[in-house]
Amino acid sequence: MTLADILTVEAILPNLRASGKKLALQKICELAARDTGLAARDIFEAVMEREKLGSTGVGGGVAIPHARMAGLTAVRGWFARLESPIEFESVDDEPVDLIFLLLAPEQAGADHLKALARVSRLFRREDMRRRLRETHTAAAAYALIADDADRDAA
Questions:
Q1: Residues belonging to the active site
Q2: pLDDT digits (tens, 9 = 90+) for 112-121
Q3: pTM: predicted TM-score of the whole model, two decimal places
Q4: Which domain holds residue 134?
Q5: CATH code assigned at 144
Q6: Helix/strand/coil (H, E, C) string of 31-68?
Q7: Is residue 154 pLDDT above 50, yes or no?
């Protein structure tokens, strides 16, 4: 499984406007709901439950919120580049402007962890974060992520 397997161009918000963490997560969860047929409120609540365990703001301006959901048949991802960074209670206390939401089926133990590791590896690279910040279209962001996924799989 690569990130190109779990992300589509339509699952990218290239210029998301949000004034805070909850609003940003709500907007991404709404997109996820449209794509999955699950209720946006259920997705948001699952994501916020995970946030209560500790912020998914991993540093470098990146957050990787994630949750397991009943009703999903495969691991799926959504990416947002925020127009302005927001406070996210990140491990490095820096604001976040890149968010990758990852949802997995309830029983997807290994697949969920593999996808989370791939997303984390992608965003750990400063050059990738910089290039994603410079994109302004869903197609450009997807091309960067998919190209990197192809290299990672090779």
A1: 66
A2: 889 999 999 9
A3: 0.94
A4: 3-153
A5: 3.40.930.10
A6: HHHHHHCCCHHHHHHHHHHHHHHCCCEEECCEECCEEE
A7: no
